[in-house]
Write a structure and sequence with these properties.
Alkaline Phosphatase, subunit A; 15 strands; 3-stranded antiparallel sheet; 2 domains
Length: 616
């Protein structure tokens, strides 16, 4: 027994450097998962799970690859450990801030994320401190106590071959074998914890490619489009009103989920609610693709009439798929003589708007640089809706003074943007509700919505006094990123299914108001529609000519008033899962694919799918 112990000691002494090297990928893997809220419920850390071994292939493959390339085990350990520490910390804060891990398409949104993160209060939790300290200790041991022999060519070649086999195995797991793992575009945090960060990131790489629909051809798409008769307008009956479209940042009605328990007011958006049933006004609920963030996906649906339901979950079409002239409300109205202006009271680089808007047909794009610094009002750290609407009025008056052509303006506001975790001297929080001390994010959010409602009333009152025929269409982009516990509080005891509640969380209010007779009775009981219909609906109300594509999309509203990634609603008002409605929507998928990936301004894509490049 003593001899065996001595042999073990000798073996350990002579192979300590190899043992330490092979422990490093395992330690790095564990560290990355611990950074994700402590890793206590990360199923991928269980050696009995397939995801554990898939991740092991990745980490060991990467360490052996770098050792083979550099011939420097010490550098490999420190460098890769540092890289994954940084990535793990970024992933931790991504989950903490937006309840979503890092996924491949986030690379398109780095600039937007960097601008938005300035509004958050940063804390350093215990797991970040522990993992950082652990890494420093690991590096110190690597440098000070472990002696690595020089790597010979033969040993490096062996490492390279082994790493290639491991990485190939991992890629096969993440692509061909992805069906063996948990996949959910809308529950990425759960997917990350079940699959592990490396595997989940790889599985989601598939979202960067959009497959052709079955039976797709350009000719088939043309036949489908031509099957819908267009409604011609005549010069005698057509009025070309100004169209002011406003996507109000995070403007949502939380009361559709449950009782808010308001105490010092009956309603936080009394004016918007008062528009229901009013003359020359259409009101309803809008199902949007975004929740808590992803503003650009809602504006993309509104402007283009493309449904997010046919894209991979979590993608950003505004960033990924706009590379040339793209049909939108702006381009269609521009052809009918409208001056088209896009506006956003923040940085134009956000969601690539400064590049995408000209390709969408906007003549002019205004961002924060076009706002007067001395006269612009800020609530918290963002331009208020009041100041944003003042710019709308200024642009309208300028258009009237300089042109006889009508104006189409699309304004994406900024006032209500998250986060809600910091109090501000320039914004008193006035709304009180039951348990408001427990939900400070919600208290700030509801107070912001109250301010938005007042600003909207002021804007409508201004245009009600104008002689120029004008339509205002206003909607929110998504519900807020507030305490999850408050959402649970609102829906506690609800008889709605999980799927129905998910759709409710993707529902925001909208209205179309005009200062002239629009025969709103033609659009009574509009109810709930998805955002891809709102653009064509607005144009119909305005008497504008829809494009062939818009006519086709609008024709689907009778059968499916809601088509969204969170599900569909049919003509009977019943919820239908997207996969069950797929056959009914197959033609829509075909014409949308042509519209996005195979139109005259794009290089025709191959049958294997369209690769996505940078939106810039």
């Amino acid at each position: 027994m003593k001899n065996k112990l001595n042999l073990c000691k000798k073996y350990l002494a002579s192979h300590i450097q190899e043992i330490f090297f092979y422990l490093s990928p395992l330690a790095t893997f564990i560290m990355v998962e611990i950074l994700e809220y402590g890793g206590t419920d990360s199923e991928c850390l269980n050696p009995a799970s397939l995801s554990f071994w898939a991740n092991i292939l990745f980490y060991y493959g990467m360490f052996m690859l770098f050792r083979a390339i550099t011939g420097r085990p010490r550098f490999t350990i420190i460098f890769l450990n540092f890289v994954f520490l940084v990535f793990g910390i970024c992933n931790h804060y991504s989950i903490a801030i937006r309840n979503a891990p890092i996924v491949p398409w986030d690379l398109y949104a780095i600039g937007t994320a960097a601008e938005a993160l300035g509004g958050f209060t940063w804390t350093i939790p215990a797991e970040v401190i522990a993992c950082t300290v652990g890494c420093v200790i690991w590096w110190f041991i690597t440098i000070r106590f472990v002696k690595f022999p020089k790597q010979k060519i033969r040993a490096r070649a062996k490492s390279f071959a082994l790493s290639a086999a491991m990485i190939a195995g991992f890629v096969l797991f993440g692509t061909i074998g992805s069906g063996n793992f948990y996949i959910s575009a809308w529950r990425q945090v759960t997917a990350n914890r079940k699959n592990g960060m490396a595997l989940n990131f790889t599985i989601n790489m598939d979202a960067l490619f959009v497959e052709e629909p079955t039976d797709y051809s350009k000719e088939t798409a043309s036949t489908i489009l031509s099957s819908v008769p267009s409604e011609e307008t005549t010069e005698e009956t057509t009025v070309q009103p100004n169209i002011i479209a406003i996507m109000d940042e995070t403007f949502a009605d939380l009361s559709i989920l449950g009782d808010l328990g308001l105490e010092n007011t009956n309603d936080v958006m009394p004016f918007v609610h008062s528009l229901s049933g009013q003359e020359n006004t259409i009101t309803g609920q809008l199902v949007v693709p975004a929740f808590g963030g992803g503003t650009c996906n809602s504006e993309y649906e509104f402007l283009t009439s493309n449904s997010y339901a046919f894209f991979k979950g979590g993608s950003y079409p505004m960033l990924q798929y706009i590379h040339g002239d793209t049909e939108s409300m702006a381009s269609v109205l521009s052809e009918q003589g409208y001056n088209t202006v896009g506006m956003h009271p923040y940085y134009g680089s956000g969601w690539n708007r400064k590049n995408a808007y000209p390709m969408l047909g906007f003549d002019t794009f205004l961002d924060i640089e076009d706002f007067d610094e001395e006269t612009t009002e800020y609530l918290r750290r963002y331009v208020s809706d009041n100041s944003s609407f003042d710019k709308v009025i200024e642009t309208y008056e300028k258009n009237n003074a300089e042109s006889d052509d009508p104006l189409f303006m699309f304004n994406v506001t900024m006032q209500n943007h998250c986060g809600y975790d910091t109090t501000y001297e320039n914004f008193p929080e006035t709304v009180e509700f039951e348990f408001d001390s427990i939900y400070p994010y919600t208290k700030q959010y509801l107070s912001l919505i109250q301010e938005s409602d007042r600003a909207i009333e002021r804007l409508v009152n201004y245009f009600s006094e104008q002689e120029e025929p004008t339509i205002i269409v206003l909607f929110g982009d998504h519900m807020p990123y507030i305490e999850n516990s408050f959402y649970n509080h609102l829906t506690n005891g609800s008889m709605r299914t999980v799927a129905e509640l998910e759709m409710d969380k993707h529902t925001v209010p909208f209205f179309i108001w005009a200062n002239y007779d629009i025969r709103e009775e033609d659009y009574e009981d509009i109810g709930r529609i998805s955002a891809n219909y709102l653009g064509p609906l607005t144009m119909k109300v305005a008497g504008a000519q829809l494009s062939e594509y818009q006519e086709y999309v609008y024709s689907l509203k009778e059968q499916y008033p809601v088509i969204s990634s969170s599900g569909c609603i049919n003509s009977n008002g019943a919820y239908v899962p997207l996969d069950m409605a797929a056959s009914d929507l197959h033609d829509y998928k075909i014409v949308q694919y042509r519209n996005v990936f195979d139109n005259d301004t794009e290089t025709p894509s191959s049958g294997s799918g369209a690769a996505v490049g940078s939106g810039g």
